[in-house]
Amino acid sequence: MPIDKIRILIIDDDANLSKTLSDILQAKGYETFTAKNGGEGLSFLKGTPVNLVLIDLGLPDIPGLEVLEKVTADFPSAKAIILTGNATLDSAIEATNRGAFSYLLKPYDLDQMLIHIKRALEKQEAEAENARQSDRLRTINAELNALYEVSLSASQTLDLRELLSNVLHSITKAEVFPLETKAAIFLADEQKLHLASFVGLSETELEPCFEIPMGKCLCGLAMTTGEILVSKNSKDDPRHSICHPDVVPHGHIVVPLKTLNKFIGVLSLYIKAGIDISEGQIKLLSSIGNQIAIAIGNARLYEETKISSLYDPLTGIANRRFLQIQLDKSLEAAQRYSQELSILMIDIDHFKKYNDQYGHSEGDRLLVKVAEILSREVRRADCVFRYGGEEFLIILPGTGTSSASEVAERLRKAVEHDTSVAISLGIASLPSSVVKMDEFIAYVDKALYRAKQKGRNRIEIANQEDFDSTEKLFEIQDYPKRCILPKL
Fold first, then answer.
1. What is the CA angle 351-353-356, rounded to 5?
2. Catalytic status, residue 390
3. Domain ranges in the chain with CATH number 3.30.70.270
4. Are 142 and 176 in contact (CB under 8 A)?
5. 3-state secondary structure of 387
6. What is the pLDDT of residues 51-71, one digit of tens each?
7. Tens digits of per-residue pLDDT, 254-278?
8. The pTM is what?
9. Which of 149, 390, 391, 439 is catalytic?
10. Any idea which architecture 156-306 has in CATH?
11. For a FRET experiment, which of 99, 131, 372, 376 has its CA 20 to 30 Å from that of 277?
């Protein structure tokens, strides 16, 4: 602390002694104040902070030790030195126990007093620096903890919706920021921001914000500038161009989410109107924004990978791998709860001939068209899969043979009406004896094969003969696995 800002209060009922000491200390560059008793000194301290208090033990109104105790309790940053003309060992020990820095006898040696004052002020400065260091460490720890908590919440899932929700709850709870429990994440396309997740926001607050054009309002501006934007009051800031007029005035911190210089979206945080945000907090939010952007990028990559592994890239419908997962679940559920279940296997008639005549590109377009028709003509609860080549398979939960036949006929007519080709269909409904997914598929495949044998562009329903031959086939296939060969 600069010497010209150091303040010393002298509490002593001896006016001459106080003035002499005050003049000496002022000559040394200190700013001094005097009080003739304990009550006056304590009243002065309530309005004027000081660095050091010199206290006479023999005050007329309040014992010096009690004044010392109040000074150390109510003004802990101030140091205190006891002055007395009637020193005893007990009083010295008591003064030290009550927080005095040191204890001087009257008449005191001036050089010794100046040394004691210097050391008391040095200790005060050291304690202040330690407090500043502790505050900095607490701030750093809080910042690191906030960064860790957000990173942890972002790393716990690759599901994008869950990830965004986790991030918002984590960051709004971070004590290092003066945030409201209100926030939103918007994801960007080339022209707009789209609301992807939010926490703590009402319908009135959300209404104008489902889509935000580039450059519009604070979030849209962050999309164009790529910089963190801070607004202290939505009512006074013209950049808040789409906020609902009934929304309570608030502040905003909008953090762009970028990775590898690619803009992904923005994190919109709410603060109370008039709150200041420090440069350190802005830097930390920038780091957090980078972490969130990376996590979003990873989640999107995971989704793309999952989609590419479970969906046919040509038609966009689920592939055979997804079929194995879904049919196994559907079969298990139907057997457990005694529910009906049917599957349709569909083949495009004379597809090879169509390919040879029109080319593979046209053949691909036909596959896409048929996939669209099948998806359009079934319920949302039904699942359409590309089984392979020109074959499709549809799972019909809760559907028996009669209803499945109606669906199959509707599909056959729709394809015939909307394309230049026809389809053949096989139907299999769940008999109690079918216990395996592969058996069920083989069962319906028999019916489809019979439809093609009988002239195509028709529907065949699997019968007991199909089931018996399927069961026998699986017994033969399973035999080597169940058979224990004798040792030679």
1. 110
2. yes
3. 320-482
4. yes
5. strand
6. 999 999 889 999 899 999 999
7. 999 998 778 899 999 999 988 888 8
8. 0.58
9. 390
10. 2-Layer Sandwich (3.30)
11. 131
